Amino acid sequence: MRTGVASLLLLGLEVAMLLVTGAGDWSVTFAGLWYAVFGTAVALALTSLVSGLVLSSAPLDRRVGAVVMAVPALVAAALFVYFVVVVVPYIAD
Question: Beta-strand (E) ranges in 26-88?
Answer without folding.
Answer: none
